[in-house]
Design goal:
This protein is of the alpha+beta class. It has a domain of 215 residues: Aminoglycoside 3'-phosphotransferase, Chain: A, domain 2. The chain has a five-stranded antiparallel sheet with strand order 1-2-3-5-4. The chain has a two-stranded antiparallel ribbon with strand order 6-9. Strand 7 and strand 8 form a beta hairpin. Helix 5 packs across helix 9 and helix 10 packs antiparallel against helix 11.
Length: 388
């Protein structure tokens, strides 16, 4: 049974003992979501978001979100030009975990409505570049997933194989995806710290000097080191604004050039159709299978004989824009509040010397933050110097 905003808000006192709730509201605008969510105004002037799980998968994601937010220390947060939700408290509501974070003011823009040109799209590209410039130690020190290019390639191959095994993937896509997997050039990239679950709704905008600017980023439960293209795949649903985002991202990037970044992002977007198909098969949802087959057929007709690597596929992004119909996670509807894809807790970093069962003490944390700041100081100066 879904928990009402009033029920959730009443539990805030357990998570924040000295806080009083003076107002309560819904967070997801009445949409069916993956979490029971509410927004609450406190008597000290703060506005907070409170969420609890609705099923086992969302419970795992909520735990992963809490772990990721703990990894994003004040020193790390100082390195990016946007706000990150701060975990304020946790409690239990029956048998469910409840997480309280601060509310980030602003608005979000659907992918299909992202405007072309400078402004929102350019700010979004710069925000992603700053995120990808974070040092890998942010992820490694907390034991979060760290994937090499070969590991990313292997995971992608598994997705392709599972979809093809259904017997419902058009031949044109089967060949296209296999050729992409065999292209060594496509998988030569520098791993980066990634959100891992980015979508248009992950970015919170405010108008600064009348210019839409990314001032907050949500959806941290899949924080990891991996392929930066994963954070850009959703741009297939914003074909008109994508060029501006990529241009701003490239101009702001302090990383090694990635010649085939867009091509991998496009491949990942296509494979959302494949994942949708597999989900339909595994859950016995004939309607999902039918929808996925239709989407795959449309995509196959749009790409013709094009490979993933060539950049001259003019109809492809328009075809993938149909992804607006595909949930970010196949198992459940999308929650527009704070969450998207699932986090895999089993993919732990190979850099972690031992499991950490709690936060570092204050002195160790201060040293880690100082090291992080030193490691990225030059990159941050370059970024801010270009985009003040």
């Amino acid at each position: 049974m879904a928990r009402s905003p009033l029920t959730l808000a009443a539990s805030v006192a357990s998570a924040l003992p000295r806080a009083g709730v003076v107002a309560v509201g819904t967070l997801t605008e009445g949409l069916s979501g993956r979490f029971d969510s509410a927004v609450a105004d406190l008597d000290d002037g703060r506005r907070v978001v409170v969420r609890s799980r609705t099923d086992a998968e969302s419970a795992r994601e909520l735990a992963a979100e809490a772990r990721a937010l703990r990894a994003l220390t004040p020193g790390v947060r100082a390195l990016v030009p946007f706000r990150i939700p701060e975990q304020l408290g946790e409690t239990e509501l029956g048998d469910a975990r409840l997480l309280v974070v601060d509310h980030l003011p602003g608005y979000r823009i659907d992918a299909a409505h992202l405007p072309v040109g400078p402004g929102a799209a350019a700010s979004l590209g710069r925000a992603l570049a700053a995120l990808h410039a974070l040092p890998a130690s942010v992820v490694q020190i907390e034991g979060l997933p760290v994937r090499t290019p070969e590991q990313v390639r292997a995971e992608t191959r598994l997705t392709v194989d599972r979809a093809i095994a259904t017997g419902k993937v058009p031949d044109a896509l089967r060949g296209r995806w296999h050729r992409a997997l065999e292209s060594d050039d496509l998988w030569r990239f520098e791993p980066a710290v990634v959100l891992g679950s980015a979508e248009a709704g992950s970015f919170v905008f405010e108008d600064l000097a009348e210019v839409p600017t990314v001032t907050g980023v949500l959806n941290w439960h899949a924080l990891s080191v991996g392929d930066p293209a994963h954070d850009l795949q959703w741009l297939a649903a914003a074909p008109l604004a994508a060029e501006t985002v990529y241009e701003a991202y490239t101009a702001a990037s302090v990383r090694a050039p990635d010649a085939l970044l867009r091509e991998r992002a496009r491949l990942y977007a296509e494979l959302e159709f494949a994942s949708w198909l597999v989900h339909g098969i595994e859950t016995g949802r004939d309607d999902v299978v039918e929808d996925a087959v239709t989407l795959l057929s449309s995509l196959a007709g749009s790409i013709g004989q094009e490979d993933v690597a060539p950049a001259n596929a003019p109809d492809l992004d328009d075809a993938i824009a149909l992804l607006d119909r595909v949930p970010a996670t196949a198992a459940t509807p999308v929650d527009t509040s704070m969450q998207t894809d699932a986090y895999d807790p089993e993919m732990l970093s190979s850099y972690l010397a031992a499991e950490r069962d709690g936060s570092m003490d204050a002195e160790a944390q201060e040293e880690a933050d100082a090291e992080t700041l030193r490691a990225t100081e030059a990159a941050l100066r370059r970024w801010t110097g270009t985009h003040d």
